[in-house]
Amino acid sequence: MATESTGTHKDPVTGELISKQELKRREKQRAKEASKAAKGPAPQAKPKDEAKATGTNEEELNPNQYYELRSRQILNLKQTQSPNPYPHKFHVSRSLQSYVATYGAEGKILPGTKLENVTESLAGRIHNIRVSGAKLKFYDLHGEGFKVQIMATQQDAADPEAFVATHDIFRRGDIVGVTGTPSRTKKGELSISPSSIQLLSPNLHQLPSSHFGLKDQETRYRKRYLDLILNENTRKLFITRSKIVNYVRRFLDNLGFMEVETPMTSLLAGGATAKPFITHHNDLNLDLYLRIAPELYLKQLVVGGLDRVYEIGRVFRNEGIDLTHNPEFTICEFYMAYADMEDLMEITEAMVEGMVKTLTGGSTKIIYHPEGNKGQEGARQLELDFQRPWKRYDMIGTLEEKLGVTFPPGDTLHTDETNKWLRELCVKHNVDCSEPRTNARLLDKLVGEYIEPLCISPAFIVGHPQVMSPLAKWHRSRPGLCERFEGFMCGKEFCNAYTELNDPFEQRLRFEEQVRQKEQGDDEAQGIDETFIDALEHGLPPTGGWGIGIDRLVMFLTDSTNIKEVLLFPAMKPLEVAPPQLGQAPLAPSGQI
After folding, report:
1. Is 394 exposed, middle or buried (0-12, 13-18, 19+ CB in 10 A)?
2. What are the distances in angstroms from CA 284 to CA 50, 226, 263, 276, 288?
3. Are 507 and 473 spatial neighbours (Cβ–Cβ below 8 Å)?
4. In this structure, what are the phi and psi dihedrals at residue 145, rounded to the nearest 5 degrees?
């Protein structure tokens, strides 16, 4: 278990961040212990005592010593090929899930008996080893979220003479293949009694204690493979994530949508208000942007006659990392010809309500712990109800009600006079907004302070000013506003949609306004995309466009308060790696950020 990080140098053995002085002290101590361990223990008289002594010594070794000892053992097996520690193939007759389903039924195998004349071959990872004398060993075999006990006895072995030598190889974390007979122990635990057991891939590292498990967050995020090995809850969470993505895909497929793929890099970063990443194309000698949204490409496909299209994929935004933001994240966007904002709200409600019912077995309610302290006494919890219809908050009307003011007319919300009024309003109510204090950013900060916290169960915020939505169509009955909605729950946005702007003349004016905001210092404002305007000039039918953040949706539906919990490989700050000890190879950096 890693302790709290208090220094700037990473201990290569424990993964802790410690001071330079403490690192030197530890390295000196390890060098002494390694020299002592290299001399080896005194020989024992009996084989079973030797095995017991070896096991005890290994438990007392530090991780570095264990790795050295285990590596030497496996390198010796590679040299002798007795057995080969990395075989090419092992035939598996059934999965652990199938084995439990087939032989775990009550009455199928009586306690203390075996199914004679039945042979199965299983494979998985050893989690625990329990020794009951030299001729009886128990292993917990894990795989696919299931566990089967291996009850290895010398009398069942195909080669009884080699029983002790064979089983002396295995350690916690090893992947093994086992062939034997389905059985139950006298206590009634489903097992397999092996005639043979084979090492398929050894684990060279000391696994954390099965009692304490892996709890350190930093280690879990940086070594997700270790987290998945040891924490069943992590495995279940990512299975749920997969179900959510598959549900979205099936829902849209059933509505007649076509899944497409659009470019990840482009000359302009458009389709959203965000700061992009920049990359370089060597052959063309061009700087390109990683996409911040697939929107403009998808709408071009609707112009081309693909009336219902969607994409599920990664987008990249060069912004801060916090509990709900990761620089790259998964989004689903769809575009539906001849639909408007009202149609999309109905589709959103139907999709998410149905998804929740699928995950909960029929209920529209889930419990969410906003502070992430599930299971603790007095933990604050929120009940989210996804039952249709969802509550709707009009942006300007709700702000007027909460602030006790009357906003300027909608068709003046873009003016300098309104900017001055909004600045004074924010100062009066202590709402902080960093530069550039554009009308759109000031309004966004007020919404974040006074409306978003009202959205506990899923709700829609509607009635956005045009100045906040450069790609949305103007409201058909409210001048200065546009037909857009944002979906919120637990005070956080999870989806965004609008009736698409399909007027190329108006679109050019909106893009030019974005350019003016960029010149004022807004790094997130968009430029003019001439190709997109050309597509609009060919005729975009009345269209509804919709986007949802998959990661944030998964957070709410799995009771997770940190986006890193729902990303298999989240962005992490690089660790400062300690210099190698004398004679050691330098550690290469991880590919992970």
Report:
1. middle
2. 66, 41, 16, 20, 10
3. no
4. 85, 10
